[in-house]
Amino acid sequence: MDFYDATTLMRLVQAVENDPYVSSGAGEALADKVREFIEDEAEMGGWYTELMNAIGEGEITDPLADFTVGRFRVHLVQEGERYGAGGGFVYGKALSNDCQLYGHGLPLVEFYDVSQDPAKFPEGQFVSRYFMSTLLGMDSIGDSIGEMSAFGLDGGVPDWTIRGDDLQEVYAHLCAAREQLESYTECGTYKDYGFGFHAKEGSMSSYVIGEPVEEGWWVLVGNYDLTDSNSDYYISDDLLNELLSRHGYPSMDALKESQADMWRNELTAIIAEAQEDSRFEVPFHLSSDESMLRHIVKRMGVPEEAARTAVANARAMYEKDAPRREPEKVVTLKGEVDKARRASAKLADNGNHSNRGQDAR
Questions:
Q1: Which H or E run contains 254?
Q2: Where would I find the H helices in the chain?
Q3: Strand pairing of 108-113 and 89-90?
Q4: pTM for the whole thing?
Q5: pLDDT digit string (tens) for 56-100?
Q6: To which H or E segment does residue 226 belong?
Q7: Are 205 and 223 in contact (CB under 8 A)?
């Protein structure tokens, strides 16, 4: 028995297990025996994980990667990526900004029928495309696919419908992808020693950047929004282009081309540095590694394991370089309130936002 035969048989087993009329009594016992036999074959052949992934029972190790459910391959189009025939469109392009305006900052979800002729459709035949937010019920109208028993991808083709457990598997993958995208992930930092985390929710991005010092940490926490002009943290196109130019990027497209998948990390570091320089965001002091961890894990929501690793690595790098480091200067904001207000107000004017009184912090 090879992988392909096993996949076909396991789908039949799943059909029996999901049928309440067949999966009882002798039917259930037979399905269990067949499943056990196929799984043993897969383990001996070294393709057990591949088999489980193919039938939708594998662990979701990378929720942003393509996955297959039944006859459909599911692909996520992230902001800034190309899609459509010949890659003729860019998701979230500044001109329309459909990602932020209509997609809640989440990817597009594309469905491809992989049961079609592979010579004609090597990656599957394109079926349909949706905003992930629509499938998860985040729009003002409509339920999530998690509440449906079947979801038709194309009303004119009955076979292009996802049902039952297959639909729930798609829902689980999309929920996992949303959780990963909206949770804090590591990013770059402009500090000599330190770490950075950022997260995106809707059109607003949040960040926390920590820099170890001899007694504790200096911590910068901030937000930025490139879309909503009514946001307190709005960065106008003019200001954004000015900041990018300072770092050698003539445009956002140039930044994305240069940094590839890491472009948002670089963007966060650029904006965080500008917000600190202008005193729009002011760093504060935490006295120990543990107080730092409590703050970014409990208050900010940074995953604890990732936070502990980042804090430990930053501290180790700081200590390793201690012999070559100049004595640290005492940082104080005493007597600088007026300066902070003027600089913060200038950034607020450039960004066209209210600044929420942050200049007084």
A1: helix 252-259
A2: 3-17, 26-45, 48-54, 98-102, 132-135, 164-182, 237-246, 252-259, 263-277, 289-294, 304-320, 337-351
A3: unpaired
A4: 0.49
A5: 676 666 788 899 998 999 999 988 888 988 888 888 765 556 776
A6: none
A7: yes
